[in-house]
Every structure is written in C-alpha cells, then in structure tokens.
Amino acid sequence: MKFVRCNGLHGEVTIPGDKSISHRSVMFGSIAKGTTEIHNYLQGADCLSTISCFQKMGIEIENRGDIVLVHGKGLRGLSRPAEVLDCGNSGTTTRLISGILSAQDFDVTLTGDASIQKRPMKRIMEPLSLMGASIESINGNGCAPLKISGRKPHGISYTSKVASAQVKSAILLAGLYADGETRVTEPYLSRNHSEIMLKYFGADVRTEAAGSAAAEPADNSTPADGSGRTPLPAGSATAVIQPAEELHGNLVEVPGDISSAAFFLCAGLMVPNSEILIRNVGTNPTRAGILNVIRDMGGDITLLNEHAGSGEPTADILVRSSSLHGTVIGGAVIPTLIDELPVIAAIACFADGTTVIRDAAELKVKESDRIAVMTENLTAMGADVTATDDGMIIRGGQPLHGASVNSHLDHRIAMTFAVTGLCADGETDILGAECVNISYPQFYEDLKRLIR
Ligand code: S3P
After folding, report:
1. pLDDT for the residue 370
2. Which of 338, 340, 439 to mutate to test the pocket of ligand 1 (most atoms within 8 A of CB)?
3. Which residue from 19, 160, 208, 404 has the highest number of Cβ atoms inside 10 Å of its Cβ?
4. Span from the CA of 224 to the centroid of ligand 1 (angstroms)
5. pLDDT tens, position by position, 75-86
6. Which of residues 202, 221, 253 is at a domain's end?
7. Is residue 339 flagged as an active site residue?
8. What is the CATH number of the domain that holds 278?
C-alpha cells in the first residue's frame, strides 16, 4: 500500500472499540453467570480469536457486529475444547486465557501464529505454576504452543519484574478460583481494565499504590494492615483479588481505542494544515500517557465531551497541526503509552531537538521488535534515529523521504508508516500493509477520507 505527501487532514473519525477492553468483555462474560451485552466490540482479528477460543469451550457467543452477546456459564461452566485453541496473533488472548485455563479441571493446548510462537510466555508460566497449574512450553523455548493442565489454584503474593497488564490479568483471573487472596505487584501501574471490569462484574478486587495507607504506613514500620509485608517501592502498585463465588454478566460499552486514535492524533499534529475531531476515545489514565507526551511536545489537543461508560473515561479529542519540540519519555509513563511508542517515535522526527525514549525494553517483545523495526524504517526514510537497549534516540528536523518499509506484519508499524508517509517527499510503500486487520480493519479507509 502506497502513501504520498498530503496537504492537510480534515474532518471527523470515530474510533473502533478498544482492543484490551473488547478481549476482557468476552473473557469475563464467558466465565460470568448470565448474558453480557457488549456494545462497540472491536471486530479486529485479535478479538475474533478470543471469541472463537471461548466458543470452542462451549460458550454461546452471538456476534452481531456492533453488539456481541455472550451467554456466560459461570466460573465453572467452560468445557474441554475438542481441538487446540488458536490465539492467532493475540498476546492478550494467549496470556489472559492461560490464567483462566490454569484453574480448570481439564487439559488444553494453546497456540498462535509465527509471531505468538516467539513471544515470551515464561512471564505467565512462572506465576501460574506457583499457583499450582502445570504449564509446559511444548517446544521447550518458553513460548507457545503451551500445554496447560489446570488445578485448584493457591493464592499467591507475586512480584512481577515487568509492568504488564497481561501478566497481572492472568494472575488475577487464576486468583478468582484460588483458595485465598492473590496479590500482584508490578514496578509501575499497567493498564487497569481487568480490575475495573472484574469489579463491575462483582469481583472483590482493589489496587494498592505505593504510599497508600493499605500498602505502606506513614512511618514505614509495620504495614497498616498488620500483614508484615515489606512496603512497596515508590511508583509500584499491587492488585489484590479475593476468590469469587461467581461473576455476574453485565452491559459493557467499549470506548474507542486510544492506541488506534494515536495514529490520527499524530497524523493531525505532523501533517500541516490539519484539524481532526477524533470521536469516542477511551482516556483511562493508565492508557492515556500519549496525551501528556503530546502536550509536553507542544501539541495542540483539546478534550471535549468527557464522560464515563462502564467505568472507563471517554472523550472526543480535537487535534490541530502543531510545531513540536523534543522530550524525554521514560519511567512510570511507559506502560501508559507502550503501544503508542512507534507513532510517537515518528512525530519525534518532525520535532525540533532530540527525543529520548527509555525504560521501554518491552518494545522488543511486542508483535515485532519495535525498537529494531522503527529504527530500520525511519532511517530508510532519512530520519536520524539511534536504537538503544531500552528505547530510541531521535534527533528531529531531518526532512523525510518515501521508502519501501516492511511492517514485519505488525499492525502498529503499518499504521505508523501510513501516517508518516503523508509527511514525506515521494512515495512510501508499506509491505504487509494488510496486517492492520488485527486491531483496525477499516484504518486505511478512515485515514483516506480525511485527506485533502
Ligand atoms: C495489553 C497489554 C499490553 C499491551 C497489549 C495489550 C492488554 O501488553 O502492549 O497490546 O490488553 O492487557 P503487556 O501486558 O505485555 O505490556
């Protein structure tokens, strides 16, 4: 697919449903009692993989397009699938479903596409094994395919090295079935959609932030809850869940995905003479770090019509072309914008000065190695980018020219270069452009409608 420079982007775009929230609505709806009615479910390939996995475990799911009905059978209502569960390209499906499967009384094999079979699964295998499940990486490389034999889980107190919502959620889901309280501490708070939705479905789940009374007493001596636990390091957060009798199905309004909106936000900033109204964007603070970074870089964005549906804040965002300057992005903000870093790296090429992205080594284990792929493709277009161990250094201000860029079948890379191509001389040709179907099947149509 080819893109050339354009003279401005104008109009409105309504962002499709959030991928993370869509996955959770079907998963939690399947293990809840009663019907869960989901509005604005994302019809991307990843979320369709989640529907298909639960259908194979005996859950009736009616996908009517905009509305999905999940006829949940309760915490103990899943049945053994007759075949291997295929999670496609979806890390969220693979890791979260593993948490649920570790607590079932049947054996299952999980697999996915070539990318999934390279992504690290030890991060969930370790805690779920500590809870009692048997999880084997069939090829012995710590990746899928995984064979999971469920057991009644033990409640554990686990400290994860990475701030990962997928790891946290897998443990919390096993914790629903456990024999006692389960605690997961992460170095920084990652997206909290599981905690919000599990609570909304009736689970007893809470978050303790470092410095909160429950987590850390003022004098740093005995914890306020008398648990004898060590106080949390600054910035870290602990999710705590109690075993549940049952969850109850509910109505879920899925907000638009800020990770998809990011491409329009950044396109609106970098393409001169642009003004775009981006409708229905989820702005949960654990996801909305890109908005702070854009403001730090001098970008012109305004939030309008702010409201909350199903416990998730949502807004429309007006973006206008802006002169940007470089910034430093690292630490606690990283989990709140991890999926947006490729397109943030692209806008940094148009900013005055240097942008440093650090503490983001997780980028290497996403759908592609996003540090290597971004550096390779931006450099091919004439940008001044250096890859580091945990991020990138981008010296802005070099004019970009079109090039042939490989998406490496990573949807966020393809979308990043579609919008970057709108600001480059000559033609940008994206190889493997069709992979946007993972999270945003109608992306190119929506983008092209805005082009002047
Ligand atoms: C997701 C969590 C993040 C994110 C991914 C979706 C989720 O992954 O990158 O696209 O839905 O929980 P990690 O948990 O590996 O950081």
Report:
1. 98
2. 338
3. 19
4. 32
5. 999 999 999 999
6. 253
7. yes
8. 3.65.10.10
Domain of 197?
19-253
pLDDT of residue 214: 47
Mean pLDDT of 279-297: 98
Cβ of residue 92 lying under 6 Å from some atom of ligand 1: yes
- Say yes or no: 126 and 87 in one domain: yes
* pLDDT-derived band at 66, boundaries 50, 70, 90: confident
Instruction: Count how many domains the chain has.
Output: 2
Q: Are residues 241 and 304 in the same domain?
A: no
pLDDT in tens, 139-161: 999 999 999 999 999 999 999 99
Whether residue 338 sits in one domain with residue 205: no
**The last residue of a domain, from among 204, 236, 253:** 253
Residues 324 and 200 in one domain: no
pTM score of the predicted model: 0.95
Pick the catalytic residue from 339, 369, 410, 446. 339
pLDDT for 215 equals 42
pLDDT digits (tens, 9 = 90+) for 201-239: 999 999 998 866 444 333 333 344 445 566 667 789 999
* 444 CA distance to ligand 1 middle (Å): 24
Q: What is the pLDDT, as a whole number, of residue 220?
A: 34
Atom from ligand 1 closest to the CA of residue 259:
10
* Cβ of 166 less than 6 Å from ligand 1: yes
If asked whether residues 350 and 246 sit together in one domain, one would say: no
- If asked whether residues 402 and 417 sit together in one domain, one would say yes
Confidence of residue 309 (pLDDT cuts 50, 70, 90): confident
176 and 304 share a domain?
Answer: no
Range of weakest confidence among 307-321, 352-366, 415-429: 307-321
- Using a 10 angstrom Cβ sphere, with 0-12 exposed, 13-18 middle and 19 or more buried, the burial of residue 64 is exposed
242 and 284, same domain (yes or no):
no
Q: Which of 92, 160, 415 to mutate to test the pocket of ligand 1 (most atoms within 8 A of CB)?
A: 92
Ligand 1 touching residue 165 (CB < 6 A): yes
